[in-house]
Design brief:
The chain is 42% helix and 21% strand. The chain has 17 helices and 18 strands. Strands 10, 11, 12, 14 and 16 form a 5-stranded antiparallel sheet that branches. Strands 15-13-17-18 form a 4-stranded antiparallel sheet, with no helix packed on it. Strands 5-6-7 form a 3-stranded antiparallel sheet, with no helix packed on it. It is elongated and about 110 Å long.
Length: 488
């Protein structure tokens, strides 16, 4: 058996043994996959870190707090799938309002394109749930196990009562955060107070229990165990982000002209002495690698694993301060800015380029259109369906009658009375009840009989319109088209 000469250099690699051709009893061990070691991100503080934690607090207060807010005596944000109604503050939406979801998705996509064109993966580095929960889980880990070196020594050390206690405490808190996250997520679809009552009485429904555990396990697994693997291998955004970059996109950049060559040096050494030794500002401390949550070296240039969290900028600025060097060895810059030595003002002027302005204009127009449509939205909806069992019939004295079914949906949170009328043909009238009372935020199918005097018009199909108004909802009127059939 022949061993792989590189095997000693890759002790953690997974190896596949291939059998040689028949008649040759030798085998060759070939390393096909390189397993990756666990990443231990070092804690960091600075301007960008504070911004990241501000967004962690903002997003989590919003996510965990919204289900507990009340509007008009009910949960402020609730997606009631069973009743097919979606409550978003003062708005009551129905499946027929799917156009607003389409508008929201278009706005989200345009915002993503805009932010990426301006400054790369800002969403990934500051507001993505994977980043947010990884930050939370890492904070728990640091509080219990210590910072980077302490965690590494703990993991490499033998199993002991101290190690077991710390690991159990950490995973217990992680699991609690995951379960609370799962309960909150389900609380957007089942009223959160009812859900907590079911939890206290151990009477959760099967589907509720499934989604609580599923979402809780996903949070625990993704933020506690998989971490950077989600960003590197599961998230598609890292793969197509380069299509939205150009040479005027702000990205986390290492200034090679200023930083190379790297090397250690005592503090206070003169610029002339550094130049004589061929040294730049980078002291090769490696802290920018130690704080990176995906374990890359930003000095090697932009890589798809970089999520633009800016931790390397914060820690490098700290080192520059200690060495009494100018900040910004690692900074947000553009490829053109670095290549041409542009200062901040001209670089930002180039950031406001045509594609960015187009994204901004389209996003603004779509946002205004969606907002305007919501503000001027009808307080009720009507669908007209012809009764297929009775398209047209002759009743007493030769009167012609058509039967319809009207679905009226009250989109307000007050009971309403609706008046039904029909127009479009001479003598056409509603002979069934022409007033409908409907409870708040409810829907009702109403059978409507429409009649016409005999021999008024010849056989055929004629366009008509139902006119529905709600006096208590601001005298708002809706017109729904249909047809009236006169049999032969």
């Amino acid at each position: 058996m022949k061993s792989d000469p590189l095997a000693s250099d890759r002790p953690a690699a997974r190896r596949v043994i291939a059998i040689a051709a028949a008649g040759d009893d030798s085998t060759v061990v070939t390393s096909l996959y390189q397993s990756e070691g666990k990443i231990y991100p070092r804690s960091v503080s600075g301007w960008f870190s504070r911004w990241r934690w501000t967004l962690v607090w903002a997003t989590q207060l919003l996510f965990y707090g919204l289900p507990w807010m009340s509007v008009n005596g009910r949960q402020a944000v609730l997606f009631d799938l069973a009743a097919r109604r979606f409550y978003i503050f003062n708005q009551v939406l129905y499946p027929q309002d799917l156009i607003y979801l389409t508008g929201l998705l278009i706005m989200s996509a345009l915002a993503l394109f805009l932010f990426t064109a301006v400054a790369g993966r800002l969403w990934c580095g500051y507001a993505c749930p994977q980043t947010v929960y990884t930050e939370i889980f890492l904070w728990v880990e640091r509080r219990i196990e210590g910072d980077r070196m302490q965690r590494m020594r703990l993991d490499q050390g033998p199993l002991s009562a101290r190690k077991l206690l710390r690991k159990t405490a950490k995973h217990g808190i992680w699991a609690a955060i995951g379960l609370w996250t799962g309960l909150t997520f389900v609380g957007y679809f089942t009223p959160i107070r009812e859900l907590m009552g079911e939890v206290r009485t151990a009477s959760l429904g099967a589907w509720e229990l499934f989604w609580v555990l599923f979402y809780g396990f996903a949070t625990y697994g993704n933020a506690g165990w998989m971490r950077e693997q989600v960003c590197k291998y599961m998230c598609p955004y890292a793969r197509f982000q380069s299509a939205m970059f150009d040479r005027d996109t702000l990205i986390v950049s290492y200034d090679r002209l200023r930083g190379e060559g790297r090397g250690a040096r005592p503090r206070g050494q003169s610029a002339a002495a550094l130049q004589a030794r061929g040294l730049g500002d980078c002291i090769d401390c490696g802290l920018c690698v130690q704080v990176c949550p995906t374990g890359i070296d930003i000095r090697n240039g932009l890589q798809y694993e970089c999520i633009s969290c800016s931790a390397c900028i914060d820690v490098c600025n700290t080192v520059m301060d200690k060495m009494h060097y100018r900040r910004g060895l690692i900074r947000y810059s553009t490829p053109n800015g670095l290549a041409q030595g542009l200062s901040v003002a001209p670089m930002w002027r180039r950031v406001a380029r045509p594609r960015v302005l187009i994204y901004t204009a389209v996003l603004g127009l779509v946002s205004l259109a969606v907002l305007g449509s919501l503000l001027t939205r009808a307080p009720f909806k009507v669908d007209v369906v012809r009764d297929r069992g009775t398209l047209a019939r002759m009743v007493g004295q030769g009167t012609i009658e058509n039967v319809y079914r009207l679905q009226i949906m009250n989109a307000t949170e007050q009971a309403q009375t609706y008046r039904l009328r029909v127009e479009g043909l001479e003598g056409l009238q509603v002979v069934s009840a022409d007033r409908v009372e409907l409870a708040a935020a409810s829907a009702l199918w109403v059978p409507v009989r429409v009649q016409m005097p005999p021999a008024a018009i010849g056989p055929g199909s004629y366009p008509i319109a139902f006119r529905i108004d709600a006096g208590q909802a601001g005298d708002f009127e809706l017109f729904e088209k249909s047809v009236f059939v006169v049999p032969r």
